[in-house]
Amino acid sequence: MKAFLTRETYNTPMLTEMLLAAGIELEVRAEPSVCPPEVLEQKIGQVDALLTHTEDHIDRALLSKASPRLKVVANMGIGFSNIDVSAAREWDIAVTNTPTEEAFAATAEATVAMLLSIARRIPALHVERRAMDCDPDPSFLRPTATSVRDKVVGIVGMGRIGSRVAKIMHGGFDNRIQYFDLLAKPDLETAIGARQVDLATLMQSSDFIVVNMPLSEQTHGLVSAEMIALMPNHATFINTARSELVDEDALVARLNAGSLHGAGLDVYGPAVNHITADNIALTSHFANFEDRAYTDMTQLVADNVIAMLTTGRALTPVTE
């Protein structure tokens, strides 16, 4: 059996060893860049398993060229919006992702870290000092940080990541939690007093707004220009989910106008290249990129491929 990995992953030797022990030979593309479409088109017709990253675009046209032997597209990541899952199902190709508990915890920790950083103006202070030869003159006229304690956190998407953020912010900083989600979360409401509200209420009454909602047809563009306009001027905005959830042009306009405290974005489109505001953190989709999370995710990629090719049943199949 043969598998193809579109580029090196976190621990490729471990992945290779695990697959080889199950009789699966792994070919690894040597270049570190996103895999070109022509390479994907060639390899998808030759292998039993395709191991992808969330930047690899696996659409219907590509899947139509898959070999009948292809049984699984194993995605390295919690998300899977880069893969046409319904098309894969038509050709009886399983799609898997890596929703490990360590990955959820890592993303939640990164979300909180980014929130604290922006609230305390650390990115702006860092950039200011790096541009100087000595400390700036002390002045009470300078923009201040904002306190984190005793505030209201609005969480857009109270899933496995959002719920962890809620617990950290409530337990660590005595924050009141309100959330927008397609489903109610009665356990969290009982445990930490979280309150479900509509999105407009959340946007206009939260000090910190955190986006952790999965991307789907239903949630695409959810945080619209209209919603962005509702945020109070002192608000801090954090997105560690998907850029397509947010009208980034509207967000950038508010940041550049100085009418938001700041923003931390782990995911974003080209609009961020036009940000002139200083209290900004951009982390290039690295929220869950840590040792424990990526070790577990790499192991799960291997386990999914092995399970699918040896038993016909994946461990974490994507069902949409």
TrEMBL record:
Question: What is this protein's record name?
Answer: D-3-phosphoglycerate dehydrogenase
Natural source organism: Pseudomaricurvus hydrocarbonicus
Keyword Nuclease attributed: no
What's a Pfam family in this record? 2-Hacid_dh
Would the keyword NAD turn up in this protein's UniProt record?
Answer: yes
Its GO CC terms are:
cytosol
| Gene3D superfamilies named in the record | NAD(P)-binding Rossmann-like Domain
What are the record keywords, sorted? NAD, Oxidoreductase
- Enumerate the spans annotated as D-isomer specific 2-hydroxyacid dehydrogenase catalytic domain: 17-318
Q: Which family does it belong to?
A: Belongs to the D-isomer specific 2-hydroxyacid dehydrogenase family.
MF term (GO), any:
NAD binding
Q: Which residues form the D-isomer specific 2-hydroxyacid dehydrogenase NAD-binding domain?
A: 112-287
**SUPFAM superfamilies to which the protein is assigned, alphabetical:** Formate/glycerate dehydrogenase catalytic domain-like, NAD(P)-binding Rossmann-fold domains
Q: Which InterPro entries match?
A: D-isomer_2-hydroxyacid_DH, D-isomer_2_OHA_DH_cat_dom, D-isomer_DH_CS1, D-isomer_DH_NAD-bd, NAD(P)-bd_dom_sf
